[in-house]
Amino acid sequence: MTFPIAYVDIRLSIHATEDLEKAKNAVCRLLSEDHIEEIPFKTEALKGHYGNPITLFETRIKDEGTIRAFMEKLSRNLDEQDRHRILTDLDIFLEKNNLYVRLDKQVALDDEFRLRSDDPIHIRIHFKNKDKGRILEFCRELGLTS
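Given the sequence above, the corresponding structure tokens read:
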């Protein structure tokens, strides 16, 4: 079976009131230390709704080994309740062949991953196949769903 994930996008908005390095560290905690050097991050300065400065921190991971390491760490550190939520509410998380996961950036600093929709770390896992059954099967194999 060929590896079903084409790429993973990770994106984070960092507001002027937040510590830039802490927020970057939250994203880096998602990644395997063995692969962190291989991942190119882009930083872009933006303006918020009221002109407030916002830094966009993002990357696209295409290397299969790096994606595997990321998926294993995410699955290992996501709590049982959130894995069950992804399974039961798959239609909310899955659009076409993209699985969207939003994580709490504050708890990511402690190597804990919790689903959160307010000011999260945005993750898009792009699958090569649009078949929902195959995507669910792969998520189960990795332990991303319960």
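The chain has a mean pLDDT of 89. Try to locate this feature in the token string yourself.
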